[in-house]
Design brief:
338 residues; mainly alpha; Rossmann fold; Tyrosyl-Transfer RNA Synthetase; three-stranded parallel sheet; two-stranded parallel ribbon; 13 helices; 5 strands; 7% strand; globular; binds tryptophanyl-5'AMP
Amino acid sequence: MTTPPFVPRVFSGIQPSGDLHLGNYLGALKRFVDAQNQGIQSIYCMVDLHAITVWQEPADLRHSTRELAAGFIASGIDPEKSILINQSQVPEHAQLAWVFNCVARMGWMKRMTQFKDKAGKNAEAASLGLFGYPALMAADILIYHATHVPVGEDQKQHLELTRDIAAKFNHDYGVEFFPLTEPVIEGPATRVMSLRDGSKKMSKSDPSDASRINMTDDADTIARKIRKAKTDPDALPSEAAGLADRPEARNLVNIYAALSDQPVDAVLAEIGGQQFGTFKPQLADLAVAKLSPISQEMARLMNDPSEIDRILGRGAEQAREITAPILEKTYEIIGMVR
Ligand code: TYM
């Protein structure tokens, strides 16, 4: 629930670390385009400050940030309609994150499953930034008073923490200043799974490249990865209930539904009874038809990095018109002399 003075505003971000993959596209990017096209003011962000919570080669980070920006634009984010930024060019994100480091409690942060997964067994060697990651994420969202955040399922816990931070700030200072932002986790592809193991999510950090479809893969690679995707021996069911104990089958059907903008039931009504030998080539054709134009456009945009830098620079100027007054007001509330 957000309270009345907050105008609807969408914010979301993606880390520029490694390649964009189909999970990012279907779970996030494609849905950002839908939000933009509904006419809601939207801000989309390459979270470069989050990326350095683990080591990044400087040249790779610079390249990945521009390539991610190209991915946003090629997928349909229009810098004339949405504000497109990289996080480090809008300093109020990091400034508000410091305030939230002082609002969030150690116990809350320790419960974050993404920290536990990423830090692994050797948490003592993880950066302090990796531990504080969710406070910066809360700042990304709340420095815009964003009311809605489209994300994949894996970000749900971070968005709950964002609400906890907003609520504690409001309570501690006796204000209704930050909205309780709504996570928007919708559609058939909120958790796209690995093509090699239906129990693991598709991820940039999976060592097997065959586990994911990268947005930069060519048509042959996409078709080969889908042909080799793990499945079971049974025919596809005609109703969603028939996918219950079949994670790999469910994943491929969900991908088909999301790519073709259809509900899962409509897809199953069409393909129910088919063997994977028949279904996989159709899925591969659909994936190539939808993704190839995006990867070609990304490559074209990457030929002119200065144009991408110009777009991000202009985005930062527009963003700061929103963020600077919100930071000022925050400092005033907490008693900083201005
Ligand atoms: P990141 O970079 O890991 O992922 C970006 C977006 O892609 C979604 N996603 C998936 N969706 C479906 N299936 C998958 N297999 C899959 N893998 C990734 C993620 O849910 C996410 O929406 N912490 C965030 C970045 C961030 C952010 C924010 C997001 C920083 N600040 C503020 C929203 C608002 C992250 O690491 O996403």
